[in-house]
Design brief:
74% helix, two-stranded antiparallel ribbon, mainly alpha
């Protein structure tokens, strides 16, 4: 693999602009080679001239660029190294402070800590539980910190390799030894190359986690801290790329087949009836699952864009950096389900031919049950950690006023507002297949059905409750109370629309009542 490609594959996204400008230096080098060839053609009498003397006329800008890159990388590395030292000190001191505070609480009476602050006594039965929480909290904190140290070490190694490669390429292309001299004089002696502080911090972190957090169990400590090697990640990326391409091709193929099947079903008939009967309930079931899978594909594109823009979405969404899905894995999952979705739709279309004794609506029901059963499957298969991360976030959203609101919580709640149609479709599927299967879909879509109103109210309620909780947490009325007012207006609009639908259904005439005018006016006001 070429180093330029390796650099792009292994760099840390949010530091993208801080790595060596390898491609820029390589472009500059080959432009110098072109100038050198032009010089030799124009001045043939320089053929006997020493190549090093000739090169000095062209390479000033190249080595100036190299020195500028070394200086820039040294400044960034010093900054990150200093941040890492400060954070290690804060983590260790905060750990000991919290344990000391817990010790004061275990005394069984109100007292003061070393800073003079009052400490409320805690029942002895809770001490072990609180201590366990502290240890778990700092295990996660040190795990994240250790990963950042490894990324900084990787930054150090990639830049060192980049300078070695580009200066070696310079000597080869320009037939010189100045690149080797520059590497020995400036790269090997640079701060980012000779500093051992990150290695010392890695060693200190391993010792602290082993001796303090894991009570001397190094195997358990390293299991928490260990980061997969870059080579393993590269192999995983290649296999994932193949699978994503395969699933994309299969999904595209089945979509084409569905289009062709829809064009010929009107011409194909069985002895009793057309291939597809009344398909509204099945259409709803297929629609909600399609929107979910297409949404997954869009999220994969978003993830790709975030990575290229240097946005560390893993940190922002508080995802486990060792076990998470990259954009290719998200694309693979989305396309795989779209392929299965299309296959199920074909089985539904040709159900009288494939399974004459089975109702066509059974196919979307089977697929629907498989999808949502897989989401809650406790077995450690098919992205187990990601599925349960999503379930935990959904639980926090449904209990928004109770828990503190994090970025991932209100981001997913915002997406649920966009996917309100999917939520209503899911409620329809449960209603139709559990109560009115075979009796038509009208009973599950009537305006007066309470659960449809409840489902429609859920997305804006989630964001309203989150905004109110954020206000009580931060005491900032803007933007939290403003957002709460916005989503409260959405709740009012849904309630008024539902009431208007119920009134319209009960009235036998087309006369406009005074209550109807009031509801219409309020609806328009809050909708604006």
């Amino acid at each position: 693999m070429k180093f330029g490609t390796e650099l792009q594959a292994h760099l840390t996204p949010e530091w993208r602009q801080q790595y060596i400008e390898y491609e820029g230096l390589k472009t500059l080098l080959f432009s110098m080679l072109d100038k050198k060839q032009e010089y030799q053609e124009d001045y043939s009498d320089n053929e006997g001239e020493d190549p090093d003397i000739l090169n000095e006329q062209f390479d000033h800008s190249f080595f100036e660029g190299v020195m500028s890159e070394i200086k820039r990388i040294n400044v960034f590395y010093k900054e990150k190294e200093s941040d890492a030292q400060t954070r290690y000190t804060k983590l260790t001191s905060e750990f000991h402070r919290q344990l000391e505070l817990l010790h004061y609480q275990s005394l069984g009476k109100e007292t003061s800590d070393i800073k003079g602050k009052k400490v409320v006594a805690v029942h002895p039965a809770r001490i072990k539980k609180l201590e366990h929480k502290i240890y778990e909290k700092f295990r996660m904190a040190f795990s994240e910190y250790y990963l950042n140290l490894i990324l900084l070490q990787n930054y150090q190694a990639l830049n060192y390799t980049g300078f070695r490669k580009i200066l070696k390429k310079y000597d080869k292309v320009m037939q010189s030894k100045r690149g080797k001299k520059c590497f020995a004089a400036h790269v090997r002696g640079s701060y980012f190359e000779k500093s051992k502080e990150v290695e010392n911090l890695i060693e200190s972190t391993e010792k602290f986690v082993t001796n303090t957090l894991e009570k001397g169990d190094r195997n358990k400590a390293m299991q928490k801290l260990r980061v997969p090697p870059l080579s393993g990640l590269e192999l995983q990326k290649h296999s994932t790329t193949f699978k994503s391409g395969l699933m994309t091709g299969l999904a595209a193929s089945v979509m084409i087949i569905i289009i062709l099947a829809s064009l010929i079903t009107d011409q194909i008939k069985t002895e009793e009836d057309t291939l597809v009967a009344d398909g509204i309930p099945a259409l709803v079931a297929f629609r909600c699952t399609f929107l979910l899978f297409f949404f997954t594909v869009l999220i994969s594109w978003n993830t790709y864009g975030w990575r290229n823009a240097g946005v560390n979405h893993i940190l922002i969404f508080e995802i486990d950096p060792r076990h998470h899905l990259n954009y290719l894995q998200l694309l693979t999952a989305g396309m795989m389900f779209l392929f299965l979705w299309g296959t199920t739709l074909l089985l539904y279309i040709f159900s009288p031919l494939v399974a004459p004794s089975m109702k066509p609506e059974t196919w979307p029901l089977i697929f629907f049950m498989i999808v949502f059963g897989l989401l809650i499957l406790p077995a450690p298969i098919f992205y187990h950690s990601t599925r349960f991360w999503l379930l935990r976030r959904l639980f926090r959203i449904f209990t928004a006023p109770i828990f503190d609101v994090q970025f991932a919580d209100f981001f997913i709640a915002d997406q649920l507002n966009s996917l309100s149609t999917v939520l209503l479709d899911i409620s329809f599927v449960f209603c139709y297949y559990t109560t009115f299967w075979g009796q038509g879909e009208g009973a599950c879509t009537a305006p007066g059905i309470w659960y449809r109103i409840f489902i429609a109210l859920l997305p804006p309620w989630f964001r309203f409750a989150q905004s109110v909780r954020r206000y009580f947490t931060t005491s900032d009325w803007f933007p939290h109370l403003v957002n709460a007012g916005k989503y409260f207006s959405s709740i009012v609009v849904i309630v008024l629309a539902s009431v208007a639908g119920i009134i319209h259904k009960k009235e036998d005439s087309n006369e406009v009542t005074l209550l109807g005018l009031d509801i219409f006016a309020a609806y328009v006001l809050f909708a604006c």
